[in-house]
Amino acid sequence: MSESKPAGQFFDAAIGLLRRVRDEEAGPVADAGAMIADIVAAGGRVFVFGAGHSSLPAQDVVYRAGGLALVNLLAVPGAVGIDVMPATLGSALERVDGLAGAVLDTSPARPGDVLVVISLSGRNSLPVEMAMNARALGLKVIGVTSVAYAEETRSRHVSGTFLKDHCDVVVDTKITVGDAELTAEGIAAPFGPASTVVASAVMQAVMAAAAGELAERGIDPPMLRSGNVDGGHEWNGRVLEEYGDRIFFRH
């Protein structure tokens, strides 16, 4: 450990997890990037979904400086963030059967598109059904989840399955059950959750892989620039106009 205090220990734990994912999940990350590149090249659209804190890595790749312009957030009202009151409602909605199907049926997603589903545990009804229904509609599904939950916990979906069971590609975040990397004397509960750090890095790595794959095929990927650099707004305006039929966060 580079630092004995909790802050340093957390950095060490997060760095260790990132290294594990980089080394052990290189294949799935590349596969996910290639799948997104395939769909972008074919004129398809890209959607991302996450509930609760798993929505943070999803939001991080939508309308993002340095990001792929075609990524759209598939939002479930009340389950995207902690701005809903009470905040515990979001957790309850993750266990509601049938909600995912209703959201997908009224979304712009169509056969040939791709959906990335992010769920730390992958055990609740909402992410499981989101993946199941997306595949039934003819979408490709990429799952970002901790496989440890499928090995050490029970599914909360009636099928007994987890998110990982309904994906074309699964990237394992390696997060341990409980999502707390640290323990310390005088602190009764484990603390230091790293799932957001790792899942966000996975999402950015996948998008980078997709951009690289498109470039290798001779396709200039539609990337957004920062609006805080000179010419950024003009650049983004051109990209959003050119690909407007595949971008839904402007409507």
TrEMBL record:
InterPro entries: RpiR-like_SIS (IPR035472), SIS_dom (IPR001347), SIS_dom_sf (IPR046348), SIS_GmhA/DiaA_subfam (IPR050099), UPF0309 (IPR022951). Pfam families: SIS_2. Transmembrane segments: none annotated. Gene3D superfamilies: Glucose-6-phosphate isomerase like protein, domain 1. PROSITE patterns: SIS (PS51464). Residues 36-216 form the SIS domain. Belongs to the UPF0309 family. This is UPF0309 protein RM609_16805.
